[in-house]
Request: fold
Amino acid sequence: MLPYTLLRILGAIPTLLLVIALAFLMVHAAPGGPFDDERGLPAEIEANIAAAYDLDEPLPVQLWRYLKRLAQGDFGPSYRYRNYTVSELIGGAFPVSLRLGAAAMLLALIVGIGAGVFAALRRKA
Reply:
């Protein structure tokens, strides 16, 4: 059982990398960008913003840096909430999501076991 599980996990890694790469490329293929609302900025400020977020690098370099940061758990800065990283936002919401997920799992177990027992007792042989 353990070798099968390890093979499944190792087989999932290329799939996960492919999905990440495709999502990355689709975001870059979409028109517009995260800083397009900043109209009227001087060219040097736009260049500084592009350099700060590695948007001035070639696409393969951007993808490689993105994958390295993901492997380290760094999801980058939030474009919506200033002075926060995406990791901080996820970490702040995780306890609530965990409680909600646990409550949903408990409810599903109670209903599922109850329905299974009821079906077994009412079985027409």
